[in-house]
Amino acid sequence: MQSIAVIVATAIAPETAAKVILRGQSYTTEMLHWIRTGEGMEGSVNLFLPNHLLHYGIFCILCIVTLSSMALIFGTWMLNYMNFYVAELVKVSAKPWLAAILGWYPWSLMRIIGFIATGVALAALGLNLVTRIRGEVPKSPFRKTYMLIGIGFVIADIVVKAVLAPIWQKLLLSALG
């Protein structure tokens, strides 16, 4: 629902959206450059991996320290600039229907699933730490399975992106026209 709202808001009021969605315009510029030239962070493991690991590390720390509340805000920020980009991509494409289908990359969806599973696991871990600091026995078990699922999807995101990004770039280029 949040993604749809941001995409619609960007389509209706692009100037306002560009002002309020942090990194929306710069991310869109970066992505359109990659689509048109094949150059940029999206198509290079050496460039995107440090950024991915940084985002995942920040997210994990926020999950533990704030019981995932600030991690939700961090995740929403990332979703917002991606949604802004998708709306702009659709707007400038010769084949908007194809751009709409391809705009959300499969590896990005894997990353979202990975972050959600990680957030569930680390919120419980953070709650356990707070409970222990209070001298009480933790009642929320750490969900190791969720953590493994989260890490698995984040790794899958990296592998799938490394393999599919060059193919996806060409598909997106055909949508741009």
Automatic annotation (TrEMBL):
It comes from the Bacteria. The keyword Membrane applies. The chain crosses the membrane at residues 53-77, 113-133, 145-168. Keywords: Membrane, Transmembrane, Transmembrane helix. This is Uncharacterized protein. It comes from Nostoc flagelliforme CCNUN1.
